[in-house]
Amino acid sequence: MMCSTSKTPLVLDKRTFGEADDMMKMFVKEGWKDQSRDILQATFRLAGKGQLVAKYDGVVVGFVTLYDFSETNSFLNYLIVKPEHRHKGFGSAMLRKAHQLAEARTISFIATLPAVPLYERHGYVKGKFCFASYSMIMKHIPVSPGAGSKYEIKASRDVDWNQLVNYDTSYHVLSREHVLKTFCSIKGSTTKVILERGKIVGYGTIRPVLAGYLIAPLYADNTEACMVLLRSLVGVAPSNSPVVLVIPNVSQAGKILLDANKNDVRVLWEGVNMSSKDTPDIPKMNNVLAILSPAICFL
Ligand SMILES: CC(C)(COP(=O)(O)OP(=O)(O)OC[C@H]1O[C@@H](n2cnc3c(N)ncnc32)[C@H](O)[C@@H]1OP(=O)(O)O)[C@@H](O)C(=O)NCCC(=O)NCCS
Fold first, then answer.
1. Cβ < 6 Å from ligand 1: which residues?
2. Which of 81, 116, 161, 190 sits in a 20 to 30 Å window from 55, CA-based?
3. What is the reported pTM?
4. Which residues form the signal peptide (predicted)?
5. Which CATH class is domain 133-290?
């Protein structure tokens, strides 16, 4: 696809695998340390044909991915332009192309705060949730005495897969089975499930990323179960390793956790959910301590 800019045409092409290295370098520069090459590859697998690399004069200047999740919804991810090529319309050209690829589907994502005006110019509207990606050395996980013994924690392989998918779906409008399969099988991932009297009351995954370890997602029925599961997941990381979580501002457990570790928390980025049309709210966002990804979250 050719888009005319001042002199030389911008070409929006299908990404080739070698360009993943370019993307990782841009993520590091941007401070997106809650990423890894393995997460990127999983996103590429999901996006299929919806991966665009922008080249100007044959040089890579930016990327975006679009994942057609269902007949009605697509997720935009990783819109990024190299700093030296910004403000020349490349980001807008990629957004227009993604919009064409999505056809009539609603496009959703979490926008980093500085990018919100750009998306608004392209007709996207803000949703009601704010998020931030926090990196912390987790010194304090507030768990009340006796809470641990109320619950059982199992490896995901020891739990009925359909029950786990149904649990995830109770937070969303549609089943995300394909997404969960892809994300849970990312190299180095450990997924644990928390049960109370044999019933699933939460689950979460931890995996290595640039900044240390990423917990994504962590859903549980109440703050206590969130903390018990968090403690178990953090135990997978080497001690004193930074742990990253993308926490919704309405998360009850998130508020308590951030307060307990306030001297050891660093904000990597802040954002808000946006979409091209109204999307239904996630019914139990208060119980979400960490989302799965900044893209694959809404519906
Ligand atoms: C957002 C981004 C892709 C825009 O690319 P671009 O090629 O500069 O986009 P355009 O030239 O079409 O539009 C520029 C607009 O982007 C927005 N923008 C500018 N700097 C930005 C920044 N550091 N971060 C985010 N958005 C920015 C502004 O609204 C800007 O408008 P202006 O030129 O009138 O000031 C680019 O700034 C970027 O890579 N930012 C860092 C990564 C990021 O935040 N991506 C969005 C994730 S949701």
1. 30, 79-81, 86-92, 111-112, 114-115, 117-118
2. 116
3. 0.92
4. none
5. alpha beta
